[in-house]
Amino acid sequence: MVPCWYLFKNKGAVGVVSKSKDGEILSNLLFHWGFQLIRGSSSSGGSEVLKEMVLALSNKKSILITPDGPRGPKESFKVGAVIASQRSQVPILLVKPAVSRSFTFQKSWDKFSIPLPFVTIHFETKKIAPIPVEATNDEVVLYAKQCEEWLQSKN
Known about the structure:
36% of the residues lie in helices and 21% in strands. By secondary structure, it is α/β, with parallel strands linked by helices.
């Protein structure tokens, strides 16, 4: 996650960060990296967060969101990004980093990791066309599942 956030440092991007204690730590870092912030998640203020995401996308902002949310399950792609794409008609850019060495917090629910100094980081990306406005709820879930499968794939 950290390498992806760093890619957008000082570029006027918007970060969606939970209101949790961990989210507070991340918010402070992102603020110093020049991000605008939307605080909340699917489990806390979800509809307001979604409205703010669509507004930011309508204003040509890039939004970074951790797709599994603040509670997981780990690597489970929630539908919020798909719905925001559908409502704003903006594509989704999936970013999958591969870090040569990192420190992993074994006690965290998502096994959060931080790249070690002087590592090599490779990024793989996939652009998903804007989700059709007429897509049904079941189709939105299917789009999210396809995003999840790509992010989980080992290439």
